[in-house]
Each structure stands twice: as C-alpha cells, then as structure tokens.
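Consider the following assembly input.
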Amino acid sequence: MRPNFQEAIVADKDDNAGNGSLDRRDFFKGAALGAAGLVVGGQSAAAEAPPIQPAPAVELPTLAHDLAYAMPAQASGPPPARAASQGRPASDFMVDVIKKIGFEYAAINPGSTFQGLHESLLNYGNNSAPELLTCLHEEAAVAMAHGYAKASGKPMLVIVHGTVGLLHSSMALFQAWADRVPVVVIVGHNRNPSGVINRPHSAQDMGLLVRSFVKYDDEATTLERFAESAMRAYRIAVTPPMGPVLLTVAAELQESLVNEVPRIPELTIPAPPQGDAAAVREAARMLVNAQTPLIQIAKLGRTPKAWDLLIELADALQAPVDVMGYSSWQKFPSWHPMYGTGGRGYTPDVTLGLEVTDMSVQARAARASGRKTISISAEYLFQGSNIHDFGRYSDVDLAIAADAEETLPSLIEEVRKQTTPERKGVIQARGKQVAAAHKELQLNSIRDARHGWDASPVSIPRIVAELAEQIANDDWAIVSGHQFTGDWQRRLLNHDKPYRYNGDCGGFGIGYDSPASVGGALAHKKFGRLPVAIVGDGDLNFSPGVIWTAAHHKIPLLFVIHNNRAYHAEVMIIQRMCGVRGRGNQNAHIGNVITDPNINYAQMAKAYGMYSEGPIENPKDLAGAYQRALAKVRAGEPALIDVISQPR
Amino acid sequence: MALRLTIVALGLITFGSALSAQTPAAAPLAAPTGNAQRGKTLFETSLRCYACHGFDGQTGSPRLVPMARAEDVFLAYVRKPATQGMPSFVAIPEADLRDVYAYIRSIPQAAPNADSVPLLKGVLDRRAKAN
C-alpha cells in the first residue's frame, strides 16, 4: 500500500542529510501539526482556545537546497575516485552489449538517470559505434531515429531521462509505432530517488507511460537481464510487424561496480514469416486470371530488396501499382509504366494489398460488386494495440499472415508458373493500355505545375520544379514526407531508387518531418547522397532545435521551408465549420495562422549556426538560392532556404 | 493535432470542383460590376478565399481562374455551394461578393503553356523518355 503524503514525508529521512539551517522534514511536520491543531481547535469550545500566535518566520527551501539533495557530491566537493579494485562500472558492460548489437548512433538529450551509461559511452566506449547525437528535445531524438531507421534499415538507439525525457519522446514513439518503424529506446530510472528533483523522474512502472505505442518494454534489474532484454528488444523491434521498443535501466544498476560480468548473448534475428504455400498459390491464381488486377502497397519495403521484387511482380502481371497515400512508404518508382491506378475507368476486379494496414474500404466495396481482395501483411501477427491505427475489420477474400516482402519471391514464382501463353497475351495487352494511360495522366499532372508558376508567394510545384532542376545530376533523397506538399515531388522528380523517398510520419501528427529528415540525412551521409527535406513552417516549430543538431554534427541536408505562415489545413477546416454554422468567416484565422509577427526561419537557422537564405517571395530568386545552399550541402554542411509559399 | 480530420476535409475540398471555372462558358461574360481592388483585400485578408484557392486563384483546388461563371451565378454558388468542402458565405453582403468576383476576373486568366516554361519542358522531356 502506498503511504499517504504525510507518512511519506516522515519516512523520507535521507532527504535532510547534510542540510543547512532548515530541517525540511521538521518544517513539513510542523506545518502538518499546525494544521491539525487548527482543526482540533475548530472542534473545541472557542472560549478554551489559546490566542493564536503569529507563526514564526521560516526559511523556505531554496533551489540550492534542492540541488543539494539531487547532487550531494557537488554540494560537498568532488567524489573520491574509485579504486579499480572496487570493480568495473556496470554501465561499461552495458556499452559492450550496445556495441555487440551494432548501433551506429545513440541520440540523447542528457539526464541524470542515465549519467552512468552516458559516461561509459564516452570514456569506455570512446563515443564511437554508437556515437552520441546531441538532441535538444527527446521528441526530436526519437523522430531522428525514426527517419534514420527507414533510410538505413537499422534502428538507432535513443537514450532518455526518466519520466520527463520519456514523456517528451512519447509523441515520436507514437509516430514510429503507427509507421511500423523500429526504434530502440533506453530510459534511465532512479529507483530509489532522493530529493525533490529526482523523485519525479522515478515511476512505479516506467514503461506504462508509453506502453500503448511500444511493441515491447522491460525493466532490467540485473546485468544478465539487461543483456538479454536488450537483445530481445532489438529482435522484437526489427521483426515484422516492426515497431519501437523500450528498455528501462535503473541508474543504481548503471552506477554499480562489478567484478564479474555475465556472458553477452548472441543477437539472433528470426527470419520473417513467409506466406503459406497453398495460400500464395491461390493468390497467384486469382491475380493471373484477373482482367484488371491492382497492387496496393503501404508499409512494404523493409529492405531495398522489396523494391526490385515489386517491380518484378508488377512486370509479371502488368498490373498497376497504387502506392496509396500519406501512410505509405511508397516503394515503387514514380515514373514506372505501372505506377498508378490504371487510368480512367480502370476498376480492379482483384486487388492485392501488400502491407496495407487497413483494407476494409476496398474489401467492402469489392464484396458489394462481386470483386475480390487479397491481403498479405504482417499486421495479422499483431498482438494488440490501444491505437486504432489498424483501422476497421477488413473482410478480404484471402488473407495471408506473413511478411509481404518475404512472400514476394514465392508469389512471383507462382504467378510465372501459372501464366499460360493465353494469359500472357491478355496480360501484355493490358500492360500496354495501362502504361499508355499512366503516361498521359502523368504528363498532364506535370503540366499542371504551370498554374501559378510566377505567383508570389511561390507555388509548391515551382518550389519542387526549381529543386528538380538543380539536383538533376545528384544522387538525391527526399527525406521529408509529402503530407503538405501534395504529390509534387513524385510528379516532378523521378523516384527511380528505393531511397529517393523516406515516407511520412505514420501517425498524422506534425513535428515529425524536420527531425526525421535529419535522421534520414544522417543515414545517407556515408553514401554521399544529397538529402533534401521540404518541411512546413508549422512542423519546424515543434522541434526547431534539430537545426542545431544538424549543424553541430555536420549532417549534410537541404532544408526547404514551405512557409505558408499557418497551420494551413486547419484554416480551411475552420472556414468550413464557420460556413456550416453560417456565422461568417471573419474569425477563421484565429488560432491557425502564424503571423504578426512573421517568423524568419532564415534568421532562426543562422542563430542555430546553419547556412540559410530567405525569406524568398519571388520565385525568380529560387534558383540562385538553391545553387548557393546546395553548394554548402555538397560540401558536407546543412543549409536552409525559407520560401514564402502559397497555402497549398 | 486534428490532422486526420484535416485529410478528410482536404479530400472534400478537392472534390469541390463545382466552383471551378473549368467548364467553358457558352457566351462571353459580362464585365464585373464590383470593385476589384476592394475585392482583393476581401479575398486575401477578410474572407480569406486564398486559403483554398491560392493567392492568385490558381494554386489551390479548385482553381478560380479562368473564371467562366457569370457574376450572379457566382454569387448564388458562393452563398449555397454544391459541395461540403466549400464554406457557405450566407452572411456576406452582396456588394462584397461582387467585389471578390471583380478581383477574380481581374487576375490574368491564362496560365503559361507548360511547354513554354523551360523547367517544366525539361521535366516533361525526362518523363517522356523514362518509358
């Protein structure tokens, strides 16, 4: 049973060790007794009550007083150096485990609950593999890891402070969860805290704070358990369906001294599940015999292998590939003849979903009209979720619980095996029609960029077209999402490599794009690619400190700020609501626009130490700004261009 | 964040193409009766039509230029739109809407031909060669 407030104060004897003039325990006890006395007095006959004396002046606890609790060593001089014979810091062993897993980077915002591990990473681990990335907010740290994982195929380690750091990181963990992306988070935990600063950093159940959106969490209470839990956490994170995991590590364990350490287990990653052979055969039969098949993809593309496999399948079936919307990783070339939904009038009689989380709409529509749906997804292996991101129940005709990427080779083989010469003729004829329709649609969609071409503020297609011209000869990668830039980057840039686009946030909350872009750019750095992020002003304001992180760690990245000075989608939403209620439009901007004063993101970037240009309002100024900023990025630095943009 | 709602609403707005002037008019339109300069102010700062349609009526969805609707047809539509995505401007004085109409008509009505824009011509050529 938990002690009540007053019992807890009385029991907290250690709090006052080394304290100066005021015994805080006595202060609170006195206050409590005084209050009790007043109550008793209130119940007594007023005539018997002694006259109330003025309370004696007391010295309230000061910040220095609280810091003395939190950091007793600093308060009383430097701690004595520990003799080697006392043992080795346990957190050194933790670094050995972390190194064995193979993390390249660990993103942190510092906190005393992991000071032992932090020191070991620096002085025992030599700040190398993993190298620490200094982040100015834990949400940015996890979002960087999110973007990095999608671009590199490997999780990044993130280390956060007990409770406060974990809570700061929670939004980004939610995004990674919704995007099915692996991130490994260690949270420090002061299990026996003393002092008013440390106590709020402790919890009875640390993992509970984010358990709705992590795939696994555990608290390591021994080194043996730390080693096993770390391996297990990593394994669970990268096993489809992937997701973020959390490992709570007691500060006391990190800072303990040990003479013997347990064995570090080997990291074994299970082979992803393949679809059942009979079910895959049936899926191939349905697809080969379809007149108008359609392939839809979402979280497909754990590895670059999926890119090639999907092209193979689309070519074998001559079926259009719908990369779907914002929640998709969109791992299919944007100028491929099969990129699209088949053209006008193409109604799929068989729809194949590959890692499409929610196929309920397609399934219901298909059942209502005698058409068929197939779903291959690791989502069927999900153990549970408090978040409704899995959507409605999808009553597809054929559901295969398996990793779609791992199942593609057998599906392609079956499709080829079952394609008779007669069907091959039908398939090839369909392919020609689909390719022609796609090409016409795509050329027209490119021509649409002419509207508002010379407008000021600058149109979004102009921003992208000018960029496309400048990076045409670079090995570029768009590391931001496209939630607020429409589909212009896919229309105007040929996404011909799996790393050209890194996907959106997953959970439809802003604040992801800017830090995730820095993480994605970091993944591309060793390959010498040119990363570009087109992010909204609203997004950047959630974690502007990531500009400093990119500058500090010299992560090459071109930030293009799509600065429409508003949470613009919300402007439209409220305008519509005003209209629905017939109360006029005059107030619709309040709470939605970011003006008066306008924010100068170029100046902001300069303050954080990054090269910048802007604000740019005339589209004719874009080319020069791009050239100068890209020269910096090609030289290994980040740069930012602030473009005053059309609202949408 | 209400972004999930936002996406739905954006979809609705995108579907709201009824205001668009893409349908060619049968006959030349009569000259607007309102004050275009005042209409620009209303468009940009009061009614904030730019939010969906872009500052020049060209970059949003639906596009407002070239405007093919007659003035009275435009007024009737704005007061009672045929789509859920478009706010209903029932409380706006008629004179204001006529001024907005005059502003839209004052915007250069033709976008450049894509093939005449070197950057877009380059993209079109690259796309055409891709397959």
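Confidence is low (pLDDT under 50) at residues 1-49, 58-75 of chain A. Ask yourself how this observation constrains the way the partners meet.
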